[in-house]
Amino acid sequence: MAMWIQAQQLQGDALHQMQALYGQHFPIEVRHYLAQWIESQLWDSVELDNPAEETKAKRLLDNLVAELQKKAQVQGGEDGFLLKIKLGHYASQLKSTYDRCPLELVRCIKHILQSEQRLVQEATNASSGSGSQAMDTLSQRHQQINQAFEELRLATQETENELRKLQQSQEYFIIQYQENMRIQAQLSSLSSLAPTERTQRETTLQSKRATVEAWLAREASTLQKYRLDLAEQHQKTLGLLRKQQTVILDEELIQWKRRQQLAGNGGPNEGGLDVLQSWCEKLADLIWQNRQQIRRCEHLTQQLPLPGPMVELLSKLNADITDIISALVTSTFIIEKQPPQVLKTQTKFAATVCLLVGGKLNVHMNPPQVKAVIVSEQQAKALLKNESTHSESSGEILNNNCVMEYHQATGTLSAHFRNMSLKRIKRSDRRGAESVTEEKFTVLFESQFSIGGNELVFHVKTLSLPVVVIVHGSQDNNATATVLWDNAFAEPGRVPFIVPEKVLWPQLCEALDMKYKAEMHSGRGLSDDNLVFLAQKAFSSSSNNSDDYRSMTISWAQFNRESLPGRNFTFWQWFDGVVELMKKHLKPHWNDGAILGFVNKQQAQDMLMSKPNGTFLLRFSDSEIGGITIAWRLVWNLLPYTTKDFSIRSLADRISDLNHLLYLYPDRPKDEVFAKYYTPPLSKAVDGYVKPQIKQVVPEADGMLDPDGDFDLEDTMDVARHVEELLRRPMANQWNSQQS
After folding, report:
1. Model-level pTM?
2. 437-469, pLDDT tens digit by residue?
3. I need a labelling partner for 412 at 20 to 30 A (CA). Which of 89, 177, 224, 280 fits?
4. CA-wise closest residue to 264 among 519, 584, 558, 586
5. Which residues contact 68 (CB under 8 A, 6 or more apart)?
């Protein structure tokens, strides 16, 4: 309820914006009387593009209606009687409106809550920014944009006022012109009068005509000046519109798209489109108003032609304003939810496209259809050059047509592709060492619609982020590398889909850290020491100084084309193996700080040498993809564990099984760190059966340990080799034979 309390404190334009969120689709009274209940529900847990979530949405709708009915029943007194009827009516209305489409109710309420939160936050920032505290950069930028809109609104209102004055002046001019024509007709008819009367009447009419003609001459000059001044004002307004549109489309929208691309690498969510949509709608409204004004000026000029350059001026203004609105419409046809960037054939996938100005321009009155096709990198280049690629595609997508739907609650016009599937793909000839997982495609979304009663017809298209098509799960690793490199290092406005062949090491570190933190769902990313370890691996270097790597570059080939020295896998394949292992089995231990991970065998030995016996640490295997090993004070390393091992017995249980492991480096008792993850003891046997239990053991060879548990350093290499062979068998079944 805290949000609603704050929302009620909004003032001025923010209050009007908040009130505009409500209507028949969701009455503000429902928000008010169910504020606490509404804010306590998990609206964000419902995936709007997943039809399977409809049951959850239906439950929320039913609960909302029940809460409204309950609230209606407890109303009493004279005023309560009316409120009881009103709330009961709203309950029936919401049930009727959303019963067949409960996901739309969730979409509506999510939009309302997000918008309220944004308005409250903006108001808070504005109030804290007054006085000694400066507004943050985002608020300042938004304030500048809003100020520019206010300037445009005033300029458009001024030209509207001037246009009305011009119209009134011209109408009066036409009346006087008609009067002059009447006088001329009267003069022509004097020939039938007697000479004396004719002379008298003629003198009067000629004097009157001279006066009117003099006024018409002066007024024609004034009208022409009015027209030129108005055209000049429109030119200035169009300049301001272009400038504002550049800020919104070429800066704000491009930044949103860049955030969307980085989100594919695990970056922060790109954020909603509410603010951008409201700006684009304001632009559309102002552009359309100015276009209508220019059209009216053209009509006035045609109605009363006067000597001068007005026809050419208005023609240019009309062409300019059409270019501006065309740029706005085509640029605001965007992909709200990208298709997966690693796309497996014969697998269902989804995407959402929207037209940010669709609602404002009434495109939804005749809902357009959107088509999706997959195209190659070369076809994408040709598209952006406006070369003809009609009917060309590089594969076949099933369920690739969708009609755009208008969502009244949010004012958005969007098409939700929920069940697309790539049936087949046609690959191009690869270049040099390029593999199939380096080949990039894109999903092209295109549509056609008109605005202004078929006055303007637009063919719009937008390209998805590059996708890599795979046919088998084993290709996922290398395809992800291609996507990560592209998302991280693509330049805005590039030719599809060019990326640098090499980048600075710190740039790659930033991308790897972003990916790692996202997969771990943790603020604990890669430390400087971790990144030094990775640099040593990538460059086959022994330097421990991070400064040595700051100016070094790493190429795509070093990243995921060439195998690491002495290995049969690349740098990325090793790193991705670590990420997959951690994500599936060891995420809690990483977030607890229990896994050092990025430590080589020699470093582990040096770190443990000065520690008490039984001290151990966990490090990633250098020799096996997705492997982690236990190194302990006796300077032995267990054969690495992989996902397969942890699917049998967890890391915590394995550590519990090994009695030689006492302290997690540097000095934490192992039970203090891992006990909360131990599997509880097995329950007593049921029906006379004893359930077997799997435990890990490390066999001890005769003479390998002395009475204190230390290794005898005088043991021969034969014993060491014998132990190594034994350690290759880390698992053993131990059966409890206790009687129930």
Report:
1. 0.74
2. 999 999 999 999 888 777 889 999 999 999 999
3. 89
4. 519
5. 30, 33, 34, 87, 88, 90, 91, 94
